[in-house]
Design goal:
Blueprint: H1 26-49, H2 60-89, H3 95-106, H4 117-124, H5 128-140
Helix pairs in contact: 1-2, 1-5
Length: about 140
């Protein structure tokens, strides 16, 4: 069982990164947050149960700081992507809208990130468990 601490607060999901619905990632970010937090606290718990010296063992507060640092870039990318999609989804009729439509129909390169396969791979193919476990192993030890 984790050693008790006072004064820690943790937000996840829409409470800390509310987003527009234009990228369909709001619930996904909340699930990823929960996975990362559980992996980090689980690793910390194992270290504490193994009898780690309290002075040598990271605290829950330290784990929460790692959680924040792991999630910040990814969730910010999702929120910015949703904002950009709002723009591209609501273009008024005209040359920019026509260029967007042509790019979508022909899979041509376009400045809209959602038409970029590398962006899509990073958005939909990111392995949050691998990322959390890699960092947890570094911070809390194997």
């Amino acid at each position: 069982m984790l050693r008790p601490e006072q004064g820690n607060v943790c937000l996840l999901g829409d409470a800390c990164h509310p987003t527009l619905p234009y990228q369909a990632q709001g619930a996904a970010m909340a699930v990823e947050d929960a996975v990362v937090l559980s992996r980090l606290l689980g690793r910390l718990n194992k270290k504490q149960e193994a009898g780690a010296n309290a002075d040598d063992c990271p605290t829950v507060g330290a784990a929460l700081k790692v959680y924040e640092s792991l999630r910040k870039t990814r969730t910010l990318t999702n929120v910015k992507g949703a904002n950009a999609n709002r723009y591209w989804n609501h273009l008024e009729d005209g040359p920019r809208q026509e260029a967007r439509d042509e790019a979508m129909l022909s899979f041509k390169k376009h400045e809209w990130a959602l038409l970029d396969p590398v962006y899509d791979q990073n958005l939909y193919g990111f392995d949050v468990i691998e990322d959390a476990d890699r960092v947890a192993a570094y911070v809390f030890g194997a």
